[in-house]
Input
Amino acid sequence: MPEAVTMDKIVSLARRRGFVFPSSEIYGGLGSSYDYGHYGVLLKENVKARWLEAMVRERDDIVALDSSIILHPAVWEASGHVTGFADPLVDCRFCKRRYRADQIADAECGARPSKHPGETDKCDLTEPRQFNLMFQTRIGPVEETGQDAYLRPETAQGIFINFKNVAQIARRKPPFGIAQIGKAFRNEITPGNFIFRTLEFEQMEMEYFVPPAEAEEWFRFWVEERRAWHLRYGIRESHLRVREHDAEELSHYSSATSDLEYLFPMGWSELEGIAHRGDFDLRAHTEASGTKLEWVDGQERYTPHVVEPALGVNRSMLAFMVDAYDEEVVAERERTVLRLHPALAPVKVAVLPLIPRNDDMVAKGRALYEELRRAVVAEYDDSGQIGRRYRRQDEIGTPYALTIDEQTLEDDTVTIRDRDSLAQERIPISGARAFVQDKLGEDWKTPKPS
Ligand code: GAP
Output
């Protein structure tokens, strides 16, 4: 029986295969910060592409936006983030550690890790104080005359303040949406669980502007729609659930929120939030800026309500990796495989000459690779034993491997190996590109049991 997927296994694979590295490692690392290597970048790009496809390309009512990371500081006053986007923190005067007041029961005491903070006479905790999660910076070269500014803690506000531009210029009538992917920054102090919670991350957010009377209905629609997206790209149904926030949990802007939770190795945790933001944001920016952010069409005039699905790219990538991770014993040998949806897999096909020293195999392999790479992300590998090369492709989640062998030199056929079933088939080299493209276009369901 394969063991359960642990975060350590994911971290180890991510590092071993160059998906994710600890940030600033040669300087001892920086907590809750990570750098993404080649396969991490490709996987992240695929997650973003699938999201954008579902939001913008497959729909007629959503347009894209890319707003600034640093916005006018008044935006964050109006949005409520300057006063409301804070965690209650307590400091220990003894060990100098800082804890979230609402998570003390799960935290370790700095002096005696087997105890919780406050449980030993080595603890001297302050009263809880509100700590704002926004990173502050200054605009301008001179400290004294510069202007305070913030790195955005969510991409959403850039969308609200562009409501009028988009509604007028893109000629959109509610219900319509604006989708944005971009970096966000939060001064998080809770330990991160790898890339689950980091200081810097990417968000994929869509603000859907609707007539107030339709808001409830659209809220329910987007909860279902977003749930279906995760399932479509391979998350097992048994590992995804919807959880409604109760009144105390709701953010300062929200009148209802449902989280899509995923069963991460550390337990059920938020993957994506779908919030019913009402008219909070458009009203707040209207009042603060003096610009009316409302829908006007002849006699019709109202402030639209907003439904917002918000997902972290990095967190989504982590969920896909965890869900895809598998270990099995094949012919008495263990293999680790990432059973990623082919549309997410960083590399779609690998070309492997069986005997790297054989010039004819290498020449055929390279020619096939050159042809394939024009159509899909392909990799050529002629280093080391074939078994090791297969294992490497399995661990990065490559769905297909094409092997050039003795028979290829005789009849111009290659074997195609399926990552999940390990089935091998012989196909003509001339049809390999079309064959792979057809395979990649087929419906896919994870072979992992629920
Ligand atoms: N505009 C609403 C908003 O930002 P949120 O629940 O705070 O809502 C949305 O964030 C999503 O962004 C989360 O569901 C999560 O996927 C991701 N996210 C939030 N904070 C994060 C962090 N520190 N590191 C990684 N991802 C994060």
Remarks:
- The chain has two domains: 7-72+155-321, 347-441.
- The longest strand covers residues 267-278.
- The chain is about 30% helix and 30% strand.
